């Protein structure tokens, strides 16, 4: 169970961020009492199906954490492709979803490619902006280090930014590294929830 939980968390709870401020209550626990009498172990034919179902459950629960984030009105997923390694891609994706400016842009339905690309650049991972591209929804808004001007008048872009879930794909080169992170927007309600009380 411990092995399965660690593997499941790597692709779920460890890929989400509400405000980049972990607390002591940000904990994932899984209990197995053994009282059912059912045993599932590696090598058994049932193991694969159980592991898949467990991974699906963790992904669903982790996404609900983000959807239910304080004051959240929409969720956004950032996928980084073409990095030198998966670790580099994850650093960039994490930096983007944790950026207050990106989170505000998502809240305001602003397809601000500059905030996303700049946030990725703040991750401390070298990449060539002239090889980078950014797609929001199905619309390419940044290509080869330059904004795609005509994208701003594409109705699909407005539709993508207005959705409850915004999908962003940032390509930073031709490397084998890929990773994703899931975050939520930063709203006035978030500020109110965290400011209008006294500890």
Topology readout:
Layout lengths: L1 H9 L5 E2 L27 H23 L7 E9 L2 H13 L1 H8 L5 H9 L11 E4 L2 E5 L2 E2 L7 H8 L2 E7 L5 E8 L3 H8 L4
Helix pairs in contact: 1-2, 3-5
Protein architecture, described:
This protein is an alpha/beta fold and 199 residues long. The protein has 2 domains: 2-67, arginine biosynthesis bifunctional protein suprefamily (arginine biosynthesis bifunctional protein fold, 2-Layer Sandwich); 75-189, Ubiquitin-like (UB roll), CATH 3.10.20. It is 39% helix and 19% strand. It is built from 7 helices and 7 strands. The chain has helices spanning 2-10, 45-67, 86-98, 100-107, 113-121, 155-162, 188-195, and strands at residues 16-17, 75-83, 133-136, 139-143, 146-147, 165-171, 177-184. It has a 7-stranded mixed β-sheet, with helices on both faces. The longest helix is centred in the first third of the chain and has 23 residues, at 45-67. The radius of gyration is 19 Å and the shape is globular. The mean pLDDT is 94.
């Amino acid at each position: 169970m411990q092995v399965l939980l660690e593997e499941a968390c790597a692709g779920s709870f460890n890929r989400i961020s509400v405000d980049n401020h972990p607390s002591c209550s940000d904990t994932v626990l899984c209990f197995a009492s053994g009282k059912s009498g059912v045993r599932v172990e590696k090598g058994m034919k049932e193991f694969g199906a159980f592991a898949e179902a467990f991974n699906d459950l963790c992904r669903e629960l982790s996404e609900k954490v983000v959807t239910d984030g304080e004051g959240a009105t929409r969720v956004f997923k950032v996928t980084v492709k073409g990095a030198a390694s998966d670790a580099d891609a994850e650093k960039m994706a994490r930096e983007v979803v944790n950026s207050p400016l990106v989170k505000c842009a998502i809240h305001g339905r602003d397809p601000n490619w500059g905030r996303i690309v700049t946030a990725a650049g703040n991750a401390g991972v070298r990449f060539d902006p002239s090889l980078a591209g950014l797609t929001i929804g199905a619309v390419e808004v940044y290509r080869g280090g330059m904004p795609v001007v005509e994208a701003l008048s594409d109705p699909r872009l407005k539709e993508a930014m207005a959705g409850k879930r915004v999908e962003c794909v940032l390509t930073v080169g031709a490397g084998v590294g890929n990773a994703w992170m899931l975050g939520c927007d930063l709203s006035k309600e978030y500020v109110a929830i965290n400011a209008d009380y006294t500890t």
